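Lesson 9: reading folded outputs for more than one chain in a single document. The general rule is that every protein is listed as its sequence immediately followed by its structure tokens, and records are never interleaved. Here is the first one.
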Amino acid sequence: MKVLLIEDEKQLADSIVSYLEGEGYNCEIATDFNSADDKVQVYDYDCVLLDITLPGGNGLDVLYHLKKRKPDASVIIISAKNSVDDKIRGLDLGADDYIVKPFHLSELNARLKSVIRRRNFAGSNEIVFNEIKVDTNSMIVTIKGEPVVLTKKEYDLLLFFMSNSNRVITRESIAEHLWGEEMDGIDSFDFIYSHIKNLRKKIMEKGGADYIQTVYGMGYKFIKK
């Protein structure tokens, strides 16, 4: 899962990113209004953690621009301001949740998981796709009741496919989702083929169907048979 943290307090940002990456998230950081606004216009994220007070502008304006581009984007506002007006405006603009500093990182993680579940998987901790079952809390994947050992990238790729079943997903979208802005300027996506090949093999070795379809010239589709 890819998360954008918009936060100008370096110590807090570093601690949040360190914690969330330890929980398996792929994190990017923006530390001011302009960089934050640029990122939400260019990249897609599973959730944006948004501070209101930013150098160069107001975080709520970033939220407004994001929602104009992508109305379904998930956003949690994090702010030192415990202002009812800020909270109401943020929620009116489409934020999913609001957490006030200081907060426990475990609470932020719980809220983050909850928002992503609501957006992608109807609020469930357990995702079932025919014979494939994923427990998003424990990050355990089973096929026909048998556990499957996946790498972190394979697990993220499987969730990405499952949350976008029956849609064509470009190689560029997959690369951006798994590696974020690190993929800018990459000419070859052969490494994506390797991850998809390994994921397909592990699913089928456990008796699962071959759900990953190549759409030539476009990308891939995870088909529910």
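And here is the second record, again sequence then tokens.
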Amino acid sequence: MKVYLDHAATTPCDERVIAATQPFFGRYYGNASSQHWQGEVARAAVEAARGQVADLIGANAKEIVFTSSGTEANNAALKGVVWGRRDKGNHIITSAIEHHSVLETAKFLEKEGFEVTYLPVDEYGMVSPKDVEKAITERTVLVSVMHANNEVGTIQPIEEIGRLTRARKVYFHTDAVQTVGSVPVDVEKFSADLLSLSAHKLYGPKGVGALYVRKGVFLQSLLHGGDQEGGRRAGTENVAGIVGLGEAARLALQWLKEGAHLEALRDRLIKGILSGASGIKLNGHPVRRLPGNVNVSVEYIEGESMVLHLDAAGIAASSGSACSSTDLKPSHVLLAMGLSHELAHGSLRLSLGKDTSEAEIDRVITVLPGVIGKLRAMSPLAAKKEVVRV
């Protein structure tokens, strides 16, 4: 049995999404900016998709800007806002556990003279709204806090943070790449001024994403050229990809309305893992977490070794973010949560999808204890210390 539990890295493209994109690779090949019938067909498809994405997050279609990825959306949000508001201030607030596309952008902006406050998190990876409020100054132009963490799945108190920023007249951006399509997302309830999402996290194609930009928010463009996307993102639109994102958004809204959820399977997996071996710690908030996220740290062994042994057994998992899978450094998220380097190195992320079955969960629960036992038998750390339940 092959088991795929790495949906946080990417989801399989839904067959209905693939079918929706096909005509725009062949029969309807027009450039959406062209003023003839082929262009009109392409343009109509792009605008239909814009409406579908807007419906999924409670926005207006005119507030959706299509991008090449969630990373581009995050870059556009941070750089676009602060570059456009230099006259208002030079201070940015974010958290220590953001995705690398936010953290690296923040570091880049520091080199340009902007000041950045990196908020700490508690043992569950939660940002405190009080810390956000204390950090805001007269020079603060943007607060960026992710909706849910991509590694440990902790869902942040976004609505409270959004109310604080709105009251202080500071723009608020949230990276919702991991949540759009998995849990209800509403830009009005969040008081969000900007929100990032990515198609391949919600059963759409890779290479396309979107940025919600609330009406009235000035965004300086990263790409200069044509006036596509209302002048906010130059470049010929990826029509097929955008159509795929639109269809994925339509299906996600339908799935959420039907009340589909993964909590029961997630909790079954957590219970099975924790009871299957000693010395295992659940990372992230026990309740306020993504419905498909399970992240654990296992004493005395490395996450990469677990991933490789699980792969040999036909189980796809990860030791953290796919964006840093070649980085031998321990997770910045787990370190920020207070884990030791040793325990952070022993992390394993198992992320479920809408088609994950009980049989697949039971397969992991059966296989993982043997993997842990085998690796601990080879571990010099385990030989020196008695393994105890964390």
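What the second record shows: The chain has a mean pLDDT of 94.
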